[in-house]
Write a structure and sequence with these properties.
Shape: globular
Largest sheet: 7 strands, mixed
Distance between the termini: 64 Å
Helix content: 40-55%
CATH superfamily of the largest domain: Spore Coat Polysaccharide Biosynthesis Protein SpsA, Chain A
Number of domains: 2
Number of strands: 11
CATH architecture of the largest domain: Alpha-Beta Complex
Structural class: alpha/beta
Strand order of the largest sheet: 3-2-1-4-9-6-10
CATH topology of the largest domain: Spore Coat Polysaccharide Biosynthesis Protein SpsA, Chain A
Length: 322
Amino acid sequence: MTTPLVSIAMTTYNGEKFLKEQLNSIINQTYKNLEIIVVDDNSTDKTWQLLQEYSQKDQRIKIFKNNTNLGFIKNFEKAIKLCSGEYIALSDQDDIWKLNKIEVYIDNIGENLLIYSDAVLIDRDGNKLGKQLVRPSSRLCKGSCNKAFFLVNFTSGNTMMFKKKLIEHILPMPESIFHDIWIGFVASTLGSITYTDEALTYYRRYSEQVTHVDHTQKPLNPIDRFHFKKEAYMQTAKNHIPVLKTFYDSNLIKNQDTIKLIEELLNQFENYETIYFNFSLYKLLKKHEDEIFCSIRHFKRKRRAFRLSVGLKLKALSLFIL
């Protein structure tokens, strides 16, 4: 029986410190029919030399070097374009994959357009942090759950594999949002996505990462704490706006309730500092909460989503009442 070709799209940039561990975990996968596409974004360290060494040892590795720095979103776009496999898995340069990752994905993707899994968080030195990236509820996302992506990105690029036919719909990638949010949105809007129970990636977190968030210690003074929370809520609202606009302008969404949900979210976030309470948004969240929170550890996520339906002035009042 012929096994389908799986392309691994990896991007690199000054990644010499962790690159060997990741490459070793990929070339030693239990699933062997792989094509490993690596696009280096004009690194200035020894990344390119390492890639040359590995490509000479393993013919499945095909390396490409950009003359100028494209940035990680456009670099991933280039890597995906170079893939020829029936399935495409995305890879960062600094993680570590469990050796059965691709085998599990192939066995479980079925008729879905995309499959993803949880990830174990590790530090710079590879030590486990005792946390996982997603930690979903037992109600896993087995069907089309397009509304889930409007409130939280629960897929991460380094944990996803998707079918090649999705490429025509995801490229070119918008530069206004992260590539994994866009791919997850398109896959779950045009078809369905699924999830594996096992965490299959060791996801490295450290301060130099593009996606790393510096969780500053919260102030103890009640007034300062309110202003801290206000700024956090305002920043969250601002961050959602370009994502929602990209979804809305994509013309991929046909469900009218979904379109209405995006419109209400945009209205909420664009007027977040002055609005008191968006009852229409609250009703839509309640109506579709089973779909929206279908694969998330939903208590904290749900609470956060419903808090976002309340404006800052009402939040300020509640701090002094409660």
